[in-house]
Amino acid sequence: MVEENTLEENTSEENQPEEFAPRQSASESATLEREFNRLAEQWRRETMSMSSSTDIAMHPAYYQIIGMGRVALPWILRELQQGGGHWFLALGAISRQNPVNPQDRGKVRKMTEAWLQWGRENGLLDSNN
């Protein structure tokens, strides 16, 4: 049987990237954020009637978001924080991390909490949220 969550916990210091969100100018960042928002809206709109998490994650807009790379991590975490959604595959693919405890796999609330905590610890989310 193949597990949906195949990323292993990868938290040693030697495997940590120097930073998760590459720096760019304010105008580049605003342009990329608009593109992310457009893709996320398209993805939500076109997958809202789907029940298969595989089909949801295979949507072209989702792949384009993953293709944005690390710059998208704060926006994905914000989306997860504000409205939930199937963002776990994108987060793992981009960050190459898996902060979810093995016993919590498949428990959406626990998975969400783990990823939001990871985002706070890595400076990608405000620690007050």
The largest sheet is: none
Going by helix content, strand content and strand pairing, the class is mainly alpha
Q: Would you count the extended β strands for me?
A: 0
In angstroms, what separates the terminal alpha carbons?
Answer: 37 Å
The fraction of residues in strands falls at under 5%
Q: How many domains is the backbone divided into?
A: 1
SSE series:
HHHHHH
Work out the helicity level: 40-55%
Low-confidence stretches: 1-18
Bulk shape = globular
Mean pLDDT comes to 86
Please compute the radius of gyration using only Cα atoms. Answer: 14 Å
**Number of H- or I-type helical stretches:** 6
Properties at a glance:
disordered N terminus, 53% helix, mainly alpha, 6 helices, 0% strand, 129 residues
What do you see in this structure?
This protein is mainly alpha-helical. It has one domain (24-121). 53% of the residues lie in helices and 0% in strands. The chain contains 6 helices and no strands. The protein has helices at 26-47, 53-57, 60-67, 73-83, 88-95, 108-121. Helix 1 (26-47) packs antiparallel against helix 3 (60-67) and helix 4 packs across helix 6. The protein is globular, with a radius of gyration of 14 Å. 25% of the residues are buried.
